[in-house]
Amino acid sequence: MTARVISVVGARPNYMKVAPLHRAFARYADRVEHLIVHTGQHYDAEMSDVFFADLEMPEPAVFLGVGSGTHAQQTARIMLAFEPVCLELRPHLVIVVGDVNSTIACALTAVKLGIPVAHVEAGLRSFDRTMPEEINRIATDAIADYFFVTEPSGVENLRREGAPPERIFLVGNTMIDSLLFALPKARAHPIRERLGVAPRQYVVVTLHRPSNVDDPVRLRLLLEILAELAQWRTVLFPAHPRTRQAVERFGLSPLLAPLHVLPPLSYVEFLALVLEADFVLTDSGGIQEETTYLGIPCVTLRTSTERPITCQLGTNQLVPPEPEALRAALRALRQGERKQGTVPPLWDGHAAERIARIVLEHCLRLPVE
Ligand code: UD1
After folding, report:
1. 126, 306 Cβ separation under 8 angstroms
2. Hey, whose CA ends up nearest to atom 13 of ligand 1?
3. Domain boundaries, given as residue ranges, for the chain
């Protein structure tokens, strides 16, 4: 018997999590047909297509093309488009990853059709319900059937919330699987030379959280502090479409002048720059993990993180996006203070292989050997 498994991708951080799963399931191609469904939550080529190329992922089997909108519009459109796909393809399992609107939309659609759902990167909690991603995480884990977890805090959170312990699997991090896959290409990539910056003489900055970029006062302050940083380090700033739009809307474009603003980068380009950065300044989720793996200091401009292991073991530090705190953190870095870290357990490049085995054995009841 061949079982059919659908993995859902929607937004940029999802691709890195699903690509290694697709490779891992390929080993069992005689038993499992693995299909990728792309919701189209992110649709610009630079937010989507280049990631498929970098990660050597096949074209999605189905593209739903839902695009942007309010949260309700986007979530609802994904559900409306995903339901007929489930009805037609009748998967035995739907895998959702991460915490984006596509994650909750497809999980909810599948469980209501009686299709089991596995959540990769389950159990992470920032305990900040003003973050849309936190609502997506809580809601997805409340209805999922199987939980694949990247770090011990996720196991604790799921147990506390009543998830059945025998369905919680600490497997490591598929994001790190992708990082290891792409590392040789990143090391060989000429982007740094092309940009004309020397190793460790620049900082990579990413900002896109609504809490940082949708508030004109906060965004202005952050851009002003980045201008100060630019006095002693080149600031490479690949700008997310959301951030670019906010900067224009609030009339803040002149504040970008001291920064080296770049379009959204491909996965390999971004990794190539992070590898030789002095440090990284971000409000992203996944970048906290990538820098921890690579041992590059990371300043995360947030008051909470759903990935506490990156602070406990890794190179990450949380800095509230307030002027004094941020200036103090940057001063310490300027004086040479660098957080040392270690790589969390099971972040070894084999998480997706563990997930595929568990899916066969526990979710599909198929032989693994
Ligand atoms: C989404 C995720 C966030 C993730 C981020 C990574 C949710 C709730 N948020 O946020 O967790 O960290 O992706 O990038 O799912 N836009 C484009 N082109 C695109 C995609 C978006 O121009 O390809 C613009 C649109 O104007 C859109 C805005 O960016 O309104 C924001 O996109 P959206 O998908 O709503 O959320 P992100 O901020 O990207």
Report:
1. yes
2. 11
3. 3-173+347-363, 184-334
Instruction: Evaluate whether 268 touches 182 at the Cβ level (below 8 Å).
Output: yes
Asked if residue 121 has its Cβ within 6 Å of ligand 1, the reply is: no
Identical fold for domains 3-173+347-363 and 184-334, yes or no, is yes
Q: Which pLDDT tens digit goes with each residue over 221-273?
A: 999 999 999 999 999 999 999 999 999 999 999 999 999 999 999 999 999 99
For the CA atoms of 293, 297, 300, 301, the dihedral, rounded to the nearest 10 degrees, stands at -160
Tokens of 346: 């099971």
Top CATH class, 184-334: alpha beta
pLDDT of 336 over the 90 cut: yes
Is the C-beta atom of 130 inside 6 A of ligand 1? no
Q: Which pair of tokens denotes residue 84?
A: 């007929």
Domain spanning 3-173+347-363: CATH superfamily: Glycogen Phosphorylase B; (3.40.50.2000)
**DSSP β-bridge partners for residue 5:** 34, 93
Ligand 1: distance of its center to the CA of 212 in Å? 14
Please tell me if the CB atom of residue 73 comes closer than 6 angstroms to any atom of ligand 1: no
Residue 42, ligand 1, Cβ within 6 A: yes
Mutation to probe ligand 1, out of 78, 206, 214, 240 (largest number of atoms < 8 A from CB):
240
Among the atoms of ligand 1, which is closest to the Cα of residue 42? 23
- Cα 7 to Cα 91, 216, 221, 345, 349, distances in angstroms: 10, 37, 40, 25, 19
